[in-house]
Structure formats: structure tokens, C-alpha cells
């Protein structure tokens, strides 16, 4: 599935200062029954966002009009648990293009990169700075610069670099995915396949 | 050349190409799919106008949202029925073998793979389910993937992954009475936290794992993901070969012997290096139970819920967790009134788990207020339960047996623990709402589950062990 390419993103942020946010919270299992990739954003953080009668919970950040933007800022170990890519779809579909945290669960990170969300790992200290800046000014702007691999708090100019491997970076910059690449290796794969049980 | 670990041997022998400053292109021997995470992948293939490269390397089973009663009737929930239909038509279209609802080999994907010999030592195995790590029990590199990757594997039989770091967890000594493989893995996770192994692939080594049955090894490897690891593996040995021999899809005759010789090479060489080594003693492990909302928040059953300062989770998350569960730090779990008991899932839905459960309930009666869901991992397990006479023991004690599937492990079907109710569950995740909106889960072994089902409260199973 192709996605929009990612270059430099400047946006306000939505803060979620909790640790170990697992993919069951991002999208509960009962919303995984679609056979198409549609409408997952409506159920992003469903049980934190809505009461059981479907009325919004006023105290959850996505229901607070003060906060908006294309960047989700979350506590450490974001995206743990189930491998459901639906979690990344829900985040993308809701309108986020980047998640900043001090630590990501592996599968979530891979899924995000595969669908065009940039997971940015920053130090716990820098994460804290971002949270504080958002607290001081909910409209605070953060620049995520993929070509330079750098996140900047525009209000103070403070910035930090982040890691991403060159291959994935190139994919994101161009909106490519892995399948085009893998199909170009068809011959090598065929030769190898014959040797396997 | 540096000595190789078991993990290196399997990984390196499957790399088709190393991408400069990028991931490895890894060949995948076996691909399992199910109804929930595959439909969008098949749609992707269609949109690209491509097919499945090696259909005979993919196996499909329906498990995640299937009902566990009246499986002979049409599935009531239209969305689930739709996913099941999509799996059926997609597999038929591309010539993929499909053990759907009602098939005599149907069951949870990570139970049916091994029990039919589809899983064999030294393979690379993926599935769109994080507990694919289960297959590591056979010395496989097995891990969960997302739907984009399911599409990738269907299209090319390969996946692109950076090679993870390596860790080894060694436990020597002898496990005490009433201490099961589930307790071993819950103990490890409680020691290193739910994210302690992120970025690593784990190898389990030492006497405890060497002496463990295949079912037990699968339980341990299954939960590797709950400490953040991509997967976990155990070197194949005689236990592995004896367990696999004669299974339907395993090689036969001379070919079998040839493979066994190869598989015997699959072990970590003396002196091979790991990025992280952890050691524990079997004697320090007692029956475990979780009290919080991630699998790392667990304790020995006689211990008290720790203070916020003693856990690795941040204080806000920890408080939220205890608040959700309705527990206080400093409290004991023993004696807490339980409403539901769930025996099943790809963690503890195998024959050995039913034997363990039956060993405690034998000659006793289920507590009246307990609702118990006993769900075999597959039809083969179900059949064995009847053949071994376990069914009679269970039903005399007041228990019913449901039909195979994931069931209350993720509560996608009707098996949902009601809001606020407390469940002792042999599954693998205690996240908020995992077993139903607002339900509360205590993860534990089949013995702890059985003890709770009989006494109605959280009970140390060692008090109820018979013979
Ligand atoms: S039993 Fe649970 S963990 Fe296992 S495959 Fe099913 S949903 Fe996944």
C-alpha cells in the first residue's frame, strides 16, 4: 500500500505522557474485523476515548480541543503487545504522521515504517522537554526533519538527532515500500527456495 | 571466525541479501496466516496485480474470531463471518492450504503448526500474530509480523529485517513442585519488565529448559514477546526429535534421519558471544501471578504487590495500572475472589496444560460462582482430552469443554470477560480490556487457574497438588 512520502514535518503535537501504551489500547481487538483498510482512525484509543455508551470521555487528550497536530508524543515503550498493524493504520488514519517517544516496541516500529509513519526515538530528557514545552504552550511547534534526522523544538531551537537506517529513510522520503524491492530479487529468491525443505 | 550462536546459524543461513545500511532480506520457510491480519494483505496483492510466489509455504487456519460453541452452525457475527469467508476465498484463489472452521485439524495457528509437523527445527517462520515466537521452541527463528509484511511474504517469500541483538537467558537447577513452564516465563518477564528484551532475540538455555517438555518450551517461547523480544528459541534435542517424529508433515524414513543429523548442529557453540546474558536459579521461582496491566507486573504467588519504587514502570503508569485492577500496593493476591477462569490460548491450550488442570480438579468440584472456559488449542488437543480420560475428570468436577480457538485470549469472539470481573487466565496478556472492555486479568499457570476454579479465590496451587 503506497503512502505519502515524508520529508520535513512541522506541527503542533498531541501529548500522551504514559508508558507501555500497548496496541490493545491503540486499537482494541474487537475493531479488527474489517477486511479493508478503512475507518480505523475512528477507533484509535477507543476505550480511553469513549465511554461504553459511545459518548466521548472529556479527560482524554484526543477529546481535548486544546491539542491537535500531526505528531503524537508518547511515553516510553510505545506500541508494545500485539503485532496488529491496525494500530499503525489507526494512528495514520487519524491524521498522525509521526510518533515521538523515548522507546518503541519493535514490531510497532517496523509496522509504522512500512506504512509511512515515522517513529522518532529521542532521549528521555529530550522527550521530557517536549512534554514540558507542550504543557507550557499547547500550540508549540516541533519540526521533524527526516533528511537531516533531527527533531527541533522551534520555540527554543533545541534539537536532537535520531537514528533511522538508510534504506528505510530512502523509502519514506520517496513513499516506496519493500515489495517493489523484493520482487526485483525474484531470481535469487528462486535459487534459494529450491534448497529449502 | 567467531563462534556462532544458535540464532546466528539459523539467521545467517536464511539471508538472501544484505542491504547496505539497511535490513537483511530473509527467506521465510513457513508462513502462517489467519482470518484477521491477512485480508488486507491479499487486497494489496490484488491492487498490485501480483500473486503468491510459493503458495505451499503458507498455511491458513481460522482461530482469532471463531466461536467456541456450536461451530457447526453459521457464524453469527457478520463481520467475523466476513473475515472467515475472505480467508476461505483468498486461500482457494491462490492455492494455499486452509484448515478453516470445522476442519478436523483446525485450531490456534501456533498449536496446529507444530502438532502437524509443519514447524520443523532451524526454520524461519512468520505469522501476523506476535506469539509466533512459540515456534522458537523447535530451534526456529519465529516472529510476529504486521499486515504489510504478510503481503511481502506472500509476494516474495521474504521479509526485510535488521538482524536483532542476541541475548541468552540461562536457568539451571530444578524447579520446585507446582512450578510450571508458565511460571518460569512469567518470572523472567517480571524480572526484566515488559520491555526489557526489546531489540533482542532470546535463547533459553540451561537445565530447566533442557529438562522441559516440548509443550513447556512452547509456553516459554510463546511469551518471549511479552518482555519485548522479537522471539525466543531453544536448541533442538532428542526431546524435540521424539516429539516431532511421525507427525503428518514431518519428513519420513531416510529423509527424517538425514534432517535429524542436520538439526543436531543447531546449537550455540562454546564461547559464542551474546549482547546480553542473564542467569537465574530454578529454586528462586515459585508459582507466579500478575497483578497489573502488563505481563511484567507479576509476583510469586505468596509475595505482596510491590511499591511503586520497586517496579521499572513509571509511577504514573503503575498507579494507573493498579487503579484499573482495583488493587493496592503491599497487598497479597492470595484470597482475592475470582469470577472467571480461562484455560486455553496458544500459551497454555495444549494437552499438557489440560493434564495439569485436571490433576488439581480431579475428585473435587468447581466453585459455584466461578465461570470457567476451558478451550483446547486445537481439535487434535480436544481429541486427546477425550482419549486420555481427562474429559471425564473435568466434567465430574463440573467443568465443560468448549471448541478450539483463541477465545478469551483476545476476546474477539463472544468469549468476553464482563466489565469489572476478575479472571485468572492462562493466556499471555493482561492489558486493559484485553479480555473484554474493563475486564481484569490475572495471568497464571494452568495449576493456578485450576486452584482458583476449585477454591473460588486466588490460591497457591501447591496446597492442592495431589499425589
Ligand atoms: S491464542 Fe491469543 S496470542 Fe495466541 S494466536 Fe490466538 S490471539 Fe494470538
List the main descriptive attributes of the protein structure presented here.
heterodimer; A: 197 residues; alpha/beta; four-stranded antiparallel β-sheet; four-stranded parallel β-sheet; 8 helices; 32% helix; B: 467 residues; five-stranded parallel β-sheet; 16 helices; 18 strands; binds iron/sulfur cluster
Describe the fold and architecture:
The complex is a heterodimer of chains A (197) and B (467). Chain A is an alpha/beta fold and 197 residues long. Helix content of chain A is 32%, strand content 16%. A four-stranded antiparallel β-sheet of chain A has the order 1-6-7-8, covered by helices on one side. A four-stranded parallel β-sheet of chain A has the order 2-3-4-5. In chain A, helix 4 links the parallel strand 4 and strand 5. Chain A is globular. The relative contact order of chain A is 0.18. The model of chain A has no long low-confidence stretch (mean pLDDT 93). A five-stranded parallel β-sheet of chain B has the order 5-4-3-6-7, sandwiched between helices. In chain B, strands 11-10-9-12 form a four-stranded parallel β-sheet. A four-stranded parallel β-sheet of chain B has the order 16-15-17-18, covered by helices on one side. Chain B has 16 helices and 18 strands. In chain B, strand 3 (30-33), helix 2 (39-48) and strand 4 form a beta-alpha-beta unit. Chain B is globular and about 55 Å long. Chain B has helices spanning 6-12, 39-48, 78-94, 109-115, 147-156, 181-192, 207-210, 214-222, 238-244, 253-263, 315-325, 345-348, 351-361, 379-387, 390-396, 446-455, and strands spanning 15-18, 24-27, 30-33, 58-61, 97-99, 124-127, 141-144, 158-161, 165-172, 200-205, 231-233, 276-281, 288-290, 298-300, 340-343, 371-374, 422-425, 440-443. Chain B is an alpha/beta fold and 467 residues long. In chain B, helix 2 packs across helix 5 (147-156). The model of chain B has no long low-confidence stretch (mean pLDDT 95). At the A-B interface, helix 4, helix 6, helix 7 and helix 8 of A face helix 2, helix 3, helix 5, strand 8 and helix 11 of B. The complex binds iron/sulfur cluster. Iron/sulfur cluster (SF4) binds next to helix 4 and helix 12 of chain B.
